[in-house]
Amino acid sequence: MTVSQLKSPGSASRYIAIEGPIGVGKTALARRLADSLSADLVLEELEQNPFLERFYRDGRSAALPAQMFFLFARARQIEEMRQSDLFSNVRISDYLFTRDRLFAELNLDIDELKLYEQIAENLAVDAPVPDLVIYLQSTVDSIMQRLVRRNLPYDRFVERAYLERLTEAYSRFFHNYDDGPLLIVNASEIDPINNEADYQQLFQQIERTTGGRHFFNPVTAALA
Question: Would you say 224 and 175 are in contact if contact means Cβ atoms under 8 Å apart?
Fold first, then answer.
């Protein structure tokens, strides 16, 4: 089954999650895909998190409340998705629920992580497995440039050292990811939001990705 078939009446639905470090373009791509597929959007509540700017500015002191806000918000969104019939329509999300622990392990100290784990276990969130995960992989230099361009209130506080640790954590996470189909995209050299040719090429790859692990590297493809 391809993504384009999802537009057909009566066809099975598709749940696509887009992942990658801060500033890599997850939300913008999610919005564009949702528009192409007439899909519902499930977006991470970044602007609603009152602790996020303080976390990037001060670090450790706001890590736990920022993490807990996201955990509860994501758990609520998953429950709302299920109550509204998860499989009634195409859904595009700009995050993968199971990678929540990636940030917890990266940002919390030992005692905070234990508390996080206890609360997460008690929430018992039954997160659906996406039919496709799109992992936007990028260099730290490229991400830093994108953060400067988009200029959100907390972007100026994001340190390079943190981005280096974050991108490494993402690489480890998706190296071991085997819950379902995975499309790893080299996002450093393409702009699928502002470049129509880049978007169409990526969209065609999404149509072809129905199982297994795949890599989309248009630069390498062009040189081949």
Answer: no
